[in-house]
Amino acid sequence: MRLFVAIPLASAVIDELRGISARLQTNGDGLRWSQPESWHVTLQFLGNTGPEQYDCTVSRLREVRFRPVPVVLEELGFFDRAGVFFAGVKLTPELLLLQNRVTEATEVCGFIPETRPYQPHITLARWKGNGQRQGLERLRAKIARQPQFTRFVAEEFLLFESFLGPGGSRYEVRERFSFDGR
């Protein structure tokens, strides 16, 4: 199993991002656009996971106690080196603390935390391969002004399984973890 832990988006935010994607997307733009049902805010990518590690992870994540987390989307942006177009997510103290608690919980199960700083975002599109970067440049030119997004409060985080395919990844929810207000 290829797993990751993430916060699902509120339906109002999905609708806003769907509208932005529809306005910016063009045929032959050289980009692979993410589907709305795949949008999320990653807390930790776990990668390939065996059955024992899976059981440990679920058990440890069930022990994470946290209050609901306010989520604030920021500007649309680009990770140029990776060829990714995204909606940024504000790194609030609450979100960073949740991300730290998740990585601490999974570390016991053998997962190694990222060494790079946590940079929460929602991936909207990525370039399809070599020679396609001009699609991102054309996309960048289309963004006349930054949108204002609806804020929401995350009431849960999820454990997803990722299935790789020629058209991009598909995600299935494996487990749900509700915040308990403590």
Key words describing this protein structure:
182 residues; alpha+beta; Cyclic Phosphodiesterase, Chain: A; four-stranded antiparallel beta sheet; 4 helices; 34% strand
How would you summarize what this structure contains?
The protein is of the alpha+beta class and 182 residues long. The chain contains 4 helices and 10 strands; from the N terminus they run βαββαβββαβαβββ. It has a single domain (2-178), classed as Alpha-Beta Complex (Cyclic Phosphodiesterase, Chain: A), CATH 3.90.1140.10.
Give structural notes:
- With 182 residues, the protein is α+β, with helices and mostly antiparallel strands.
- It has one domain: Cyclic Phosphodiesterase, Chain: A (Alpha-Beta Complex).
- It has 4 helices and 10 strands, in the order βαββαβββαβαβββ.
- The strands form 3 sheets. Strands 3-1-9-10 form a 4-stranded antiparallel beta sheet, with helices on one face. Strands 2-7-6-5 form a 4-stranded antiparallel beta sheet, with helices on one face. A two-stranded antiparallel sheet has the order 4-8.
- The model has no long low-confidence stretch (mean pLDDT 92).
CATH topology-level fold name? Cyclic Phosphodiesterase, Chain: A
Q: What's the structural domain tally?
A: 1
Query: What structural class is derived from the secondary structure elements?
Result: alpha+beta
**Cα distance, first to last residue?**
31 Å
Could you report the average pLDDT, rounded to the nearest whole number?
Answer: 92
Global Rg? 17 Å
Give helix and strand order, one letter per element, not per position.
EHEEHEEEHEHEEE
Number of strands: 10
Largest pleated sheet? 4 strands, antiparallel
As a percent range, the share of helical residues equals: 25-40%
Low-confidence stretches: none
What strand line-up does the widest sheet have? 3-1-9-10
Number of DSSP helical runs:
4
| Broad CATH class | Alpha Beta
CATH architecture: Alpha-Beta Complex
Mind telling me the CATH superfamily name? Cyclic phosphodiesterase
Strand percentage, roughly?
25-35%
Globally, the shape reads globular
